[in-house]
Amino acid sequence: MAKVSSERKPLIIGNWKMNGMSATSRALTRELMQALHNHDACEVVLCPPFTALTQVRELISGTNMRLGGQNGFPADKGAFTGEVSMAMLRDVGCDYVLVGHSERRQHLAEDDGFIARKVFAASGHGLTPVLCVGESREVRLAGESERFVLRQVETGLSMLPHGASFVVAYEPVWAIGTGLAATTHDANAMLSSVRAWLCEKRGILAPNFNLLYGGSVDSSNITDFIAQSDIDGALVGGASLNAQAFAAVVLGAARGHTCTNK
Ligand code: PGA
Fold it and tell me: β-strand 43-47 against 166-170: which pairing, if any?
């Protein structure tokens, strides 16, 4: 069940994680804008830290680039010291929000139920949730990857209203920040299973969603990932922190898309 997306652009999301002061965030954004020249063969989303969202938004307004939050809290407002709501992200110009990134699952003990509430809240505020899923090395070695990932998808999307847009990013934990990307075959097989599950169990078909691969994506592998039948784009960490490297990923994705005429 391949994507039906010849007219759809690859979606490339840059996750800056906890990196970037005001000056460096502005410089990175400016350099990227110069390198891409308002390139529109891909949908490019920047996810800077909360503290740089407004500055990045001001720079990219009027371009094709979009803004995303790296996290958001499910309640709209109130006594949740230190949290930022989905409504607030929307208010500063975000169109996307990452939900359930493995670093938050690991370091902040976020569980699938909490993540499902975030997906619901994001969607309710007009944000496209990017649900991050992926197995650990132990789960992989036990041969349980597909079952584990499909369960994360099922629970994570359990509160999503019918017809709402979303993104699933398959990011095997062992591939994040290690330089050891999944093989294109394995990444495509997992996303093919996710696509089939969405269709058969939930009756959801493209173009309501995009399926991304993430984990050590760079300019050397992006073209091959995008050329796969079930990979609609990429979630990029380390390589998004350098404008030339990230621009090369975006251009490589456009090439992969054109080559296969998807
Ligand atoms: P990486 O990170 O590209 O540095 O592996 C990806 C991610 O964590 O989203």
Answer: unpaired
